[in-house]
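Form 12-C: Joint structure prediction
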Amino acid sequence: MLKDKIIMGEYAVFVWSCYGAVIVLMTALAFISWKNKKTDEKKLNALSKQLEEMNKQD
Amino acid sequence: MHKFANPARFLRISRMITPWFFILTAVLLVVGLYWGLFIAPEDYQMGSAYRIIFVHVPASYMSMFCYGFMAVASLVGIIWKHPLADQSARAAAPIGAVFTALALFTGSLWGKPMWGTYWIWDARLTSELVLLFLYFGYMAVWEAVDDRVKAARIAAIVAMVGAVNIPIIKFSVDWWNTLHQPASIMKSGGASIHPDMLWPLLISILAFNLYFVTVVLWRIQSLILRRQIRGLQMRIVEGRQNVEGQNHHG
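Section 2 - Result
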């Protein structure tokens, strides 16, 4: 039964390609967006510390 | 609304809500796609090929929704000159481009078994392809123009002018003789689709909407942070120059 659902007759290649593309592209975009945000947060924190130290030295 | 549009407040609130949106998106995506693939019954005419609609329809709908969002945000940016509006439009563009590319890809894979061809210069397909180029054009403006204020203005004009294409996509199946079937969900008289197929489709559409909210919030946060990073970098450079100047005089 499950095998039939997976094979889907002659349409499996079309259906699975669509779902595969959706999962890969949407996951990639979400991951890149989240990763960029995390990188920017780290960069901002590092710069804030650097500025704080500069102000202390002054 | 203006209070929420304060970048610092926006960052604080969006950081609190995005994890919840992310969890909800993941759950609904899994439920919607699993239901569409394995639980929804086969179509008596199209067999299992119709299961493509559970990803094609949400992607197509979101491709137009994202552009509409960009056009409205751009209009707000032009009228009130609020940087958060421009950042919102800019953050939405890559998401819309991905949805449009997915709509075209899944549509062509639907076309092959149903119409016998991957592509035809049909009004709906062509206007959707134009939408993809509009997204590319919008993103290219932001990359090409160094002056952020100028880039925001030009990009906003591209977004607003390009919005003309949205009703063309939506009504192309009514205005012209197209191979693409007419609307079966958002039409007068209610949806003409069986509830066993309609529910997983609605869940998928909701999941795609929540995905957009989650990713656009991450991207806006990133753009705000980059603005703050540029500000700090300038302050550090100025500080170093002042110190060097004092040493030179000393």
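Section 3 - Comments
Residues 20-182+201-249 of chain B form one domain. Residues 195-249 of chain B form the longest helix (55 residues).
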